Amino acid sequence: MGKDTKGFFRRKWFLRIISLILALFLFMYVNGSKSGFLRQNTRNNNQSSALMSNKSVTLRMPLDVTIDNNKYIVSGYPQYVKVKVTGPSALVTTTSNTQNFKVYADLSDLTPGKHRVKLKTSGLNSELTSKIEPQYINVNIQPRKTITMKVTIRLSTRDLDNGYKLGRPHSDIQTVQVTGSRDEVNKVNRIVAFVAIPHDAKDNIARQVTLQAIDRNGQTLNVVTSPTTTNVSIPISAGSQSSSSNDSSSSSSGSEEAKSNSRATSRNDSSDSSSETSQSSSSISNEDSSSSSRNQ
Predict the structure, then answer these.
(1) DSSP state of 216
(2) Strands 80-88 and 129-133, bridge-based pairing
(3) Strand bridging mode 129-133 / 229-234
(4) Is the peptide bond before 227 cis (omega within 30 degrees of 0)?
(5) pLDDT tens, residue by residue, 54-81
(6) Which of 137, 154, 263, 274 shows its CA 20 to 30 Å from the CA of 55?
């Protein structure tokens, strides 16, 4: 029995079948590993391609102006500019999210007057390229000037419709500092706190008002006041019309009361007169009856 079993496993056809099965398994294993390797390589290549591909994005960036702010005032430049950033997709995405660069105009070597200046960027990765819109700006550089001026209160009206009167307004700030370019500061005529007064106001008014620097023509100037606001209080009291109105109503009330008392007195007097007349008639009647009695 044992010899037959050993002979069966030693037969050529059996060994050939086993070899074929093993070969099929080995073939399938190798192909599966190769496909997985190819898929992994394809995925890695796609990711690398996506990271290395170029991309563009347009960002809205604030504009920095480099100048000695203690000496000069700059006007005429935009507050924001557009920057088109182009480069590897990963870097562009990171730059778009962080915006860790700046756009600036270097005016440190320029003298007072009007100039045309080219904008630049700093802090941008060397693999990225940028295009600024606009590329050039026009600026006006003026010497800085600061003066002190008195605050003037201006009311929208001096007369109220209900007869009440406005008192003298009061501001908690008497003077302010005015700072700006020399040309603009020289145009300042007065610093005004404008207060709008309702026409039917009856109670005292308290307002926080923004200060305005205006020229001789009443135009607002491009300067900065420090402080920028003031608290204004305006007393309101009853006027002559209101008082006369109250007096006339009191007089009218007194007149009506006097008339009422007069009418009441008249009624009482007529009542007393009627009573006396009645008593007199009764007395005469009694006398006639007694006389008639005596005659009989």
Answers:
(1) T
(2) antiparallel
(3) unpaired
(4) yes
(5) 899 999 999 999 999 889 999 889 999 9
(6) 137
